[in-house]
Amino acid sequence: MNNNISSIIGPEMEIDGNVSVNGDLLIYGTINGDVKSDGDIISANNSKVNGNIVSKNASISGVVQGNLIIESKVTLKKDAHLKGDLKAAIITLEEGARFDGMCSMVQQEKYKSTTSNPSSFNTANEQV
After folding, report:
1. Contact 31, 48 (CB under 8 A)
2. What percentage of the chain exceeds 90 in pLDDT?
3. What pLDDT is stored for residue 66 in this prediction?
4. Which residues pair with 74 in a beta bridge?
5. How far apart are CA 34 and CA 49, in angstroms?
6. Tell me: the pLDDT tens digits for 14-62?
7. In what side-by-side order are the strands of the sheet with 35-37?
8. Is residue 106's pLDDT more than 90?
9. Which of 1, 8, 41, 70 lies 20 to 30 Å from 93, alpha-carbon distance?
10. Do 29 and 7 form a contact (C-beta atoms < 8 A)?
11. Is the dihedral of CA 39, 53, 111, 98 positive or negative?
12. What does the alpha-carbon distance between residue 99 and residue 95 come to, in Å, rounded to a whole number?
């Protein structure tokens, strides 16, 4: 992940609706909607995302209630809690991270077909 944060959702902010960013996004607050970035997404401790996250890379320290669809690398930090499915090429879970969902490791080339439709992520019930 790089250090060129282009957008920040502050700790006092709550957004009701989808967020789309060209570049990197740092989340301290709450987003009630899907988040899409062509760069990196970093969610700080105590942040909340109630929706899917689609990005190149992600580092999660807060709570996410939705699916993560990450092109390259995702890291669930020790304070993270993911309540949803995870699809990424590289997955790192720190000790203490909580993850309630299905996990799929994909090659980066396959990412291109899933980003156009984040709901294309099949859950275990849909695969049966």
Report:
1. yes
2. 77
3. 98
4. 58, 91
5. 8
6. 999 999 999 999 999 999 999 999 999 999 999 999 999 999 999 999 9
7. 19-21, 35-37, 53-55, 68-70, 86-88, 103-105
8. no
9. 8
10. no
11. positive
12. 11
Task: Please state the domain extents for the chain.
Answer: 5-127
Strand extents, DSSP E, 4-128: 5-9, 14-16, 19-21, 24-27, 30-32, 35-37, 40-43, 48-49, 53-55, 57-60, 63-64, 68-70, 73-76, 81-83, 86-88, 90-93, 98-100, 103-105
The answer to whether 40 touches 59, Cβ cutoff 8 Å, is: yes
pLDDT digits (tens, 9 = 90+) for 61-96: 999 999 999 999 999 999 999 999 999 999 999 999
For residue 47 the two structure tokens come to: 């942040």
């291109």: which residue's tokens?
Answer: 112
State both tokens at 107.
Answer: 């090659």
Q: Per DSSP, what are the bridge partners of residue 60?
A: 43, 76
For 51, 85, 113, 114, the CA distances from 120, given in Å and listed in that order, are 14, 12, 9, 6
Alpha-carbon distance of 83 to 113, in angstroms, equals 23
- Residues in a beta bridge with 9: 27
